[in-house]
């Protein structure tokens, strides 16, 4: 858990499905027809009038799924936000624009900032710094996070790194666990950590993903609950803490990646105002599973994925 204090930002809740973009990495808005690599520019040809499609078109299925997800999130009255993106397609969705305190999910951001400071880019970290990075991500060690926070020059260094990473809605705090962020920005961070078009080298991206894949068993909850049978790999980082301004209630966040045969999901679930950590974990896991269940169903008949 991270040290906390201070006051939360005023609550603001808007439901929307938005295009998520990152430093030149653009994805089509959730609700658009999926376009495959190599299909060229523009939409795919429509069906012949003589051969109508009997099932609901994909664009309608996606719109319907989005509506159900918005209704699901709305039940939590601003205490839940979700975002998901399929790296092997163009399905992407964000529901909820409120900022949440990060707690320990910011440790992934800290590590990305640390790697961006390496000269030349991709230069290997020292053995001691690698040890601290592994402890910070794999077991969520706070002492390691404090040491690396100092190495990146704290909130000033995180702010500079986030400009390169394409994060627009994350506000660093001198108490790192009280940094605030949105689900959309966490999706941008995950995109930067997995895309060849982002600012990190392949070596650095592999390093971060490798640590998120090794998170200790007792911390492998959260978005991992959304994995489907046949999932190849799961990567995760969670954050949890109590909030004095919320009467000691819990905030619980989870970000990660789920690689499947036909999809490569990036997913973020942020939440707060839970009566206990366990209650927060249940909410996050149910939300993650529901979002991917709906999006998988919406694109199920959309042909084989590529990339």
A few lines on this structure:
The chain is of the alpha+beta class. It is built from eight helices and nine strands.
Shape: globular
What does the radius of gyration come to? 19 Å
- Summarize the helix and strand pattern as letters: EEHEEEHHHHEHHEEEH
Beta-strand share of residues: 15-25%
Proper CATH architecture of the domain at 21-31 and 57-100 and 182-298: 3-Layer(aba) Sandwich
Name the CATH superfamily assignment of the domain at 21-31 and 57-100 and 182-298. Answer: DD-peptidase/beta-lactamase superfamily
The helix content is: 25-40%
- Strands side by side in the biggest sheet: 4-3-9-8-7
Q: Biggest sheet, open or closed, and with what strands and sense?
A: 5 strands, antiparallel
Overall average residue pLDDT: 84
> What's the CATH topology label of the domain at 21-31 and 57-100 and 182-298?
Beta-lactamase
| Poorly predicted tracts of residues | 2-55
**Structural class from helices and strands?**
alpha+beta
> What is the CA–CA distance across the termini?
37 Å
Number of strands: 9
Q: Tell me, what is the CATH class of the domain at 21-31 and 57-100 and 182-298?
A: Alpha Beta
So what's the oligomer here?
single chain
Number of helices: 8
């Amino acid at each position: 858990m991270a040290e906390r204090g201070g006051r939360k930002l005023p609550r603001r809740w808007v439901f929307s499905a938005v295009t998520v973009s990152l430093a030149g990495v653009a994805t089509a808005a959730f609700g658009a027809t999926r376009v495959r690599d190599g299909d060229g520019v523009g939409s795919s040809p429509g069906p012949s009038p003589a051969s109508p499609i009997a099932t609901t078109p994909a664009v309608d299925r996606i719109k319907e799924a989005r509506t159900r997800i918005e209704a699901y999130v709305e039940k939590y009255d601003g205490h839940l936000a979700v975002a998901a993106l399929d790296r092997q397609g163009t399905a992407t969705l964000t529901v909820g624009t409120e900022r949440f305190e990060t707690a320990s999910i910011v440790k992934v951001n800290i590590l990305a900032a640390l790697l961006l400071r390496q000269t030349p880019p991709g230069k290997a970290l020292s053995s001691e710094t690698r040890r601290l990075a592994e402890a910070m991500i794999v077991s969520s060690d706070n002492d390691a996070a404090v040491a690396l926070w100092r190495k990146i020059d704290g909130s000033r260094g995180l702010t500079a790194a986030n400009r390169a990473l394409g994060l627009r809605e994350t506000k660093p705090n001198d108490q790192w666990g009280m940094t605030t962020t949105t689900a959309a920005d966490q999706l941008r961070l995950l995109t930067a950590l997995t895309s060849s078009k982002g600012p990190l080298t392949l070596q650095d991206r592999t390093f971060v993903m490798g640590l998120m894949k090794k998170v200790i068993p007792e911390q492998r909850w959260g978005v991992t609950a959304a994995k489907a049978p046949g999932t190849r790999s799961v990567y995760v980082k969670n954050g949890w803490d109590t909030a004095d301004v919320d009467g000691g209630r819990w905030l619980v966040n989870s970000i990660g990646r789920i690689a499947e045969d036909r999809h490569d999901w990036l997913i973020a679930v942020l939440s707060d105002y839970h009566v206990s950590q366990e209650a927060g974990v249940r909410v996050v896991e149910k939300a993650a599973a529901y979002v991917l269940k709906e999006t998988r169903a919406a694109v199920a008949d959309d042909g084989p994925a590529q990339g």
